[in-house]
UniProtKB/TrEMBL annotation:
GO terms for biological process: cysteine biosynthetic process; sulfate assimilation. It comes from Paspalum notatum var. saurae. Gene3D superfamilies: P-loop containing nucleotide triphosphate hydrolases (3.40.50.300). Belongs to the APS kinase family. Residues 1-34 are annotated as: Disordered. GO terms for cellular component: cytoplasm. This is Adenylyl-sulfate kinase. Pathway: Sulfur metabolism; hydrogen sulfide biosynthesis; sulfite from sulfate: step 2/3.
Amino acid sequence: MLPARAPPRPCSGAAVTSSRDAPSTRLWGAPARGGQQASGVKLVTAARRPRRTTAAAAGESWTAAGGRTTQLASGSSAVAGISKLVTSTVRKSTNIHWHDCPIGLEKRQKLLNQKGCVVWITGLSGSGKSTLACALSQELHSRGHLTYVLDGDNLRHGLNRDLSFRAEDRAENIRRVGETAKLFADAGLICIASLISPYRIDRSACRSLLPKSSFIEVFLNASLEVCEARDPKGLYKLARAGKIKGFTGIDDPYEPPSDCEIVIQCRVGDCPSPKSMADQVVSYLETNGFLQY
């Protein structure tokens, strides 16, 4: 019998209670151009990503929630407290056909009086992604809009619990979240995805799944100094002690967005409140027509 699942993490900023069909070319916030270091963010030189393998040597990695994942020699994985999980593989399906239904995106959007989209929040661990996601969801809910939050840690309790933090598993993690977010957007919801998602190529792949104007990338530009000082899960301390390998910002690279829609700056002693961050995103959604149909 599986043990009881750990209760979900509470949303930070819970006290917040108020306040393309045609794509906008305006960048909301300070620009963060590719190839240049974004203000306050420590970049680690990107190493060549390892080739995908069918089976991993026995070893351990750590989940974002502090749980341990053991990679078995057979290529399967076992999460602490779960006897065995089958490692997923991505294969190409054949002999399948798309089946259209009479109720499509336009009718769903008309019913909800909003336009489906994906708000993709990226940044270092501890930058405030989950806090912003929850504050944004609550603000939109208070205005009568239907949203759903896809939180990186929460998804690793279920949909992605068979994945480690190796580069190839991180890519698969983001692919699954991107496909899931696409379905929510197609349902007419405002889907809010909050994940470190450190590699540009993986975020770009998710962007390509949707109409260009419907993928809104939000970069929480908080420096490593700020995030490590917060360290809400104690992961930076473990990484510095060598107990976590491949931790983003320490010994694994974070590649800031080169052309995102919104940049939210957070400097030492000058970080915006959850409500202020949420209002910035809501303003973008309003200006670009997502909050009405």
